[in-house]
Every structure is written in structure tokens, then in C-alpha cells.
Write a structure and sequence with these properties.
alpha/beta; globular
Length: 202
């Protein structure tokens, strides 16, 4: 049964706006959308970037794929529809963080271009920074930090991205970070330099 959206809801404009919050925080807000295969290093990089931003005295928050599925999205599985809804919810939450003047950092496989475009379209120009955390499938399997590839190869995990479900590489991401070629420090540096080059950070 399809749920129908309520028709009596009216948007309420806030007294304090996004620009006000950005001025208070001393930097612009955006979404750093880390996408890539399982094991590519998205969560590791996202947390390292947040640590660097914290050390710089900047406001940020990381939304991690597994963590979000423990709460906000615990009702979702991994079917095509559930994956789509997972990304839609995260995109909407990320938009709220941007409105709060905070740098939102997301670490999700988000394998489909269409879903990532939905997230991008929610935000204003320049606020969505797609970071392709690029790593070869072979290297991701060699790392296999959660043992997921081994299970997927045995058929124990259906619809596993890179094995039994496709990963659609970004066509024109704002940034590509090759984690099988760069150290974590070098990877963080690339993200910070990008943010500075776009005047998101001063």
C-alpha cells in the first residue's frame, strides 16, 4: 500500500538562516559525499577528514553508512528500493546539516549514479562535493576489513556491490582520491586543499 503525502503541511521560514549560521561558524557549509566500494576506505577517510577539520576549529559531522543503519535506517534492507530510500534519507539529513552551517561528511557506498544525483539536486550549486574514494576491486577484496567479500563470494550476502550488484563509478566527481595509491594523510590533504580552493574553508 503506497503512502500518500500530507497535503496540509506548510513550510515555516526560520528567523535565522543558513548564511547567518555560516557566519557564526566562520566557514561555508557543504556535503562531502564519499562514495566507493566496500573496503575502499570511505569511513577511514571520512573520520580522518573530520578529525583534521576539528583540529582546525571547524564544525563538521560524519554520517557513516553502517552507523545510520543502526538507527535512522534500521528498517531498510539492501534491495534496490531500500538502497534508494537509504540514500534519499541521508541526503535529506545532510541537507539539514548544511542548513545548520555544518560540513556534513557522508560515507556510503551509494552505488548508483541516479541516487547520488538525487542527493546533489537537493543542494545548492557548490554545496555537494562528490568524492570518489577509488580503489581497485582486487585491493578492496584483499583488505576485506569486515569479511564481507568472502561471504559475498560464497553467496551468503545477496546483492553485494562489486560482486553480485554493480557499482556505477562517478562520471564527473569533484574529487577523486585513490586510496590504494595515497596514504591516509595524503588523502586528507587532498580533501582539505579542495575545500580551501573552493573557499568553503578560508
Amino acid at each position: 500500500m503506497t503512502k500518500q503525502a500530507a497535503t496540509h503541511i506548510v513550510w515555516h521560514n526560520a528567523t535565522i538562516g543558513k548564511q547567518d549560521r555560516q557566519r557564526l561558524n566562520g566557514h561555508r557549509s557543504c556535503v562531502l559525499w564519499f562514495t566507493g566500494l566496500s573496503g575502499a576506505g570511505k569511513s577511514t577517510l571520512a573520520n580522518a577528514v573530520e578529525k583534521r577539520l576539528y583540529e582546525m576549529g571547524l564544525k563538521s559531522y560524519t554520517l557513516d553508512g553502517d552507523n545510520v543503519r543502526h538507527g535512522l535506517n534500521k528498517d531498510l534492507g539492501f534491495s534496490a528500493d531500500d538502497r534508494k530510500e537509504n540514500i534519499r534519507r541521508i541526503a535529506e539529513v545532510s541537507k539539514l546539516f548544511v542548513d545548520a552551517g555544518i560540513i556534513a561528511i557522508t560515507a556510503f557506498i551509494s552505488p548508483f549514479r541516479e541516487d547520488r544525483q538525487v542527493a546533489r539536486d537537493l543542494l545548492e550549486t557548490g554545496e555537494f562535493v562528490e568524492v570518489y574514494v577509488k580503489c581497485s576491486l582486487d585491493e578492496c577484496e584483499n583488505r576485506d576489513p569486515k569479511g564481507l567479500y568472502a561471504k559475498a563470494r560464497k553467496g551468503e550476502i545477496p546483492d553485494f556491490t562489486g560482486i553480485s550488484s554493480p557499482y556505477e563509478e562517478p562520471v564527473a566527481p569533484e574529487l577523486v582520491v585513490e586510496t590504494d595509491l595515497l596514504t591516509i594523510e595524503q588523502s586528507v590533504d587532498r580533501v582539505i586543499l579542495y575545500l580551501q580552493s573552493r573557499s568553503i574553508l578560508s
